[in-house]
Write a structure and sequence with these properties.
Helix 4 packs across helix 5. The longest helix is centred in the last third of the chain and has 11 residues. The termini are far apart. By secondary structure, the chain is an all-alpha fold.
């Protein structure tokens, strides 16, 4: 998991310039920093839904289905 934790925040789905600015103000620069901040601090700053979602993604938890962008070319 440390490989993912070393990645910059922008590599997480849903972290754009605005969210990156908010997270940076909290001292977060990497995905691992989000885990260290904790769910409660993220929820307090970003709201319950967004904070919890980013915290889960930072830990590799994502129950969304994978949807391919195009039809398979072979079987």
């Amino acid at each position: 998991m440390s490989l993912v934790h070393d990645l910059p925040l922008r590599r997480l789905w849903g972290v754009g310039p605005a969210a990156e600015g908010e997270l940076s103000a909290m001292g977060a620069r990497t995905i691992g920093d989000l885990v260290r901040l904790g769910r409660r601090r993220l929820e307090a700053r970003l709201g319950a839904t967004s904070g919890a979602h980013l915290f889960d993604l930072a830990q590799g938890l994502d129950d969304r289905s994978v949807v391919p962008w195009h039809d398979p070319k072979s079987i």
